[in-house]
Structure formats: C-alpha cells, structure tokens
Amino acid sequence: MIKIKNLHKKFGDLHVLKGIDDEVRQGEVVVVIGPSGSGKSTFLRCLNLLEQPTEGEIVFNGVSITDPRNNINKQREKMGMVFQQFNLFPHMSVMDNIILAPMEVKGMKKEEAKDTAYKLLKRIGLADKEKAYPNQLSGGQKQRIAIARALAMSPQVMLFDEPTSSLDPEMVGEVLDVIKELASEGMTMVVVTHEMGFARQVASRVLFMDDGLIVEQNTPQAIFNEPKHPRTKDFLGKVLRSFE
Amino acid sequence: MDFSFIFRYQSLYLIGIRNTLLLALAAVIFGSIIGVFLALMRLSSIKPLKFAAASYIEFVRGTPLLVQLFIIFYGLPVVTGMRFPDIVAGAMALSLNSAAYVAEIIRAGIQSVDKGQMEAARSLGMPHGMSMKHIIIPQAFKNILPALGNEFIVIIKESAIVSVIGIYDIMRSANIVRGITYRPFEPLIVAAIIYFIITFSLSNLMGVVERRMRASD
Fold this sequence. Notes:
The complex is a heterodimer.
Chain A: E1 2-11, E2 14-24, E3 29-33, H1 40-47, E4 55-60, E5 63-64, H2 72-76, E6 79-82, H3 94-104, H4 110-123, H5 139-151, E7 157-161, H6 169-184, E8 188-192, H7 196-202, E9 205-210, E10 213-218, H8 220-225, H9 230-243
Parallel strand pairs in A: 3-8, 3-9, 6-7, 7-8
Antiparallel strand pairs in A: 1-2, 1-4, 4-5, 9-10
Chain B: H1 5-43, H2 47-62, H3 65-80, H4 86-111, H5 115-123, H6 128-158, H7 170-181, H8 186-215
Helix pairs in contact in B: 1-2, 1-4, 1-7, 1-8, 2-4, 3-4, 4-6, 5-6, 6-8, 7-8
C-alpha cells in the first residue's frame, strides 16, 4: 500500500533520516519505536508529505507521491493523521471539526456529513459532545475527537504521531482503546509511540529506529522477547525496566 | 483663557472634523485593502513578491510620514502629469503609509496561529488556500483585531500632518482660528479635545467589538 524507497531527510546540516526502505501492506499495523531524536516522527510525517523528503521515493497505491507533479491533496484525503498535540480547530465545535473536511474537500452534503459524524462520535463514546468546543474537553476526549475527525474522511490508512504522549496518564487508556478497536477492524495504520505494552498487543510488525535508520524489524513477540541488535536490546532494556 | 471664539468659528472646526474623518476613513479602508495584499505577498513562497512587499514595508516604516506626504504631494503631478485635489494626495499618503503597518499586523497575526493548525488542515486533504480561509484566518483575526484598532487610532492622530500641505483638517482649522483671533493657545486646546473625543470613542468601540469576539470562544 505504501512503499518507501531510500528515504532521506535533512534539516540543514542535520541528517535525520538516512535511507529508510519499507513497505506497509494492506491491513498491517506497523508500530514504530525508538529513542527520541531517532527520526520516528519525521519518518511518519514524510508519509503524507508534511515533511518534504530530501531524497528517495514514496509510492502510495501505485502513485509516486514524492513526484513534484503529483497533487498530494488527493492522497492526503486517504491518509488520516493524528497528532501528538491533537490540533483540533479551537474556533469550531466538535461537530464542525469533524464535518469540515468531508464537506469542503469531498463535497459531501451537510446532512450526510453529520450522519457520519454522529456514528463516529457514538463509536468513540462522545455522542454528547457534538456542540462542545475543544477547550471544554479533556486531553483524552480531544484526541478521540481528532481520531474521529480523521476517520470522517474514510481514509485507507491512519498515521498516528505519538497519540498519547501529551496525555495525562489516566487518559492514555481511553485513546489506546479506540486505536486498538480500529486495528481489530482491519484498518491499516502506522503508529509512532512510546507505549510498549500497546505495541506488543496490536502491532503486526514493529520497526525499531535509531539514528535515522530502521535498525531492526520483526513481529512484536520476536522484537520484545529476543531482540537481535545490541541497540534494540539496549533501548528495550531501558524502556521496559522503567515500566516495571 | 477665553474660549468664546468657539461659537463664532465652530463652522470652521466642523469642516475640519469632516475632512479629518474623511481622510481617516479613506486611509483605513484603502490601507487595509492594500495591507492585506502586502501581507499575502510577504507570506507567499514566490521570492520576488516577498522581496517587493518586504522592501516596501521597510521603506515606509523607515522614513517619516512627512517625507512620504511631500513625495506624493509634489511627486505625483510630476510622474502622472495630472493635478490631483490636495485631499486625494493626503488620503493616498496616509493609505500607503498605513498599508505597511496593517500588513505587518496581519502577518504577525497569521504567524501567531499554531503551526499544527495548518498541518491538521493539510493532513485532511484541504488545499493551502482552503486551510487559510477556514482555519488560519478566522483564528488570526482575533489576534489581529486589537492591533488593527490601535492602528486606526494612530491614523486619525497622524492625519494632522496633512495640514502642512493645506488640507483643511482639524489641525488646520485650529491654525486658522489662531490667526483670526490672535489667540495662539486656546484654539489648539479645542483641536486636542476634538481629536481626543474621536479617538476615545473609537477605542471604546473597538473594546466592545473585542469583548464580543471573546464571548464567542
């Protein structure tokens, strides 16, 4: 579904991605882990071109989205993204946050967009919040609304950029539950996260990134129980110990 | 002090008030329109547009309004070969001056909106222009409004400078009354009070509008 070939990204002199190759297949849940500064988020943001790669190619559904002649807006409609900072539109109600893009981008009728939005709100357990504004919601609620907003475009793949990192601990669970449910329904997704328990539970494949490269990748069982690369061992040793 | 001259010469002041308000209104309207375009140019990714807007803004902010006024007043007939009424030259100078400040206010307002807002809009497949219209501009507007109200008040006060090219504004009417009555001081006090009443009403009005906007949060 998404093919990544020799992806490089530089910010000035800083070489953040040093040649990433991977393929995300239909229905896969790819979880990206690694120390901060390893390039995980940059990698994810390159997939929908929020960051312009310096070198390399990304092919989505057979279309090269890194081709300068390609209009990325078309593919972005099919790639939902959820941010660490939620990025809800603060001047709009929850309902308007969700229906804006389906109406403006897809030309959906207001009634139809609202119907979809109601269903999504019910699914994430926030049916009573349609008239609320983002600043009246808790972090966990904001992030669930952000997920609903992305889902309203009926994307083929969801990109999660550390979706629980700016949440209070007691709200992490409610957001992860929504993501888990999506995974169980067969949604293709790429998730950058520090939640190792979550990675172990839902990933079909775990990528361990360090210093701009995919150092090791495998099934969650293999990565967590018998990591092969010394850097993976070192990282997991530190992270998992802090969890005990 | 003797203010009895007011009743004899109030019609002079009234003409001055009318002209000052006309000038300020023209400067606010045209200054805002030109200012929006300058801000868009300055924020665009097209280098020559960006450079042109930035140079213009720096030039206007770096030279005295009096010099700009004289350049337009004496230069315009030379460049265009046409005579303009004085008040047009005055309105033009004030508009072109204000446009630079309005552009900076708008640019700062747009840039103060969190970067994540544009990213969220773009990630939903919204093109740049659509994201600006629905997401960025409405949020920037609330940041821009107070500074813009301030700029309008500045224009009203600065417009007094056009009296030097003979435009009959509040300041000039005060000078004329001074000449007729041989009273150097009191007519200026009257002018100051008139300016203050206008700007004070405007700043109160802006305060009401701002409170309305905040109430909708």
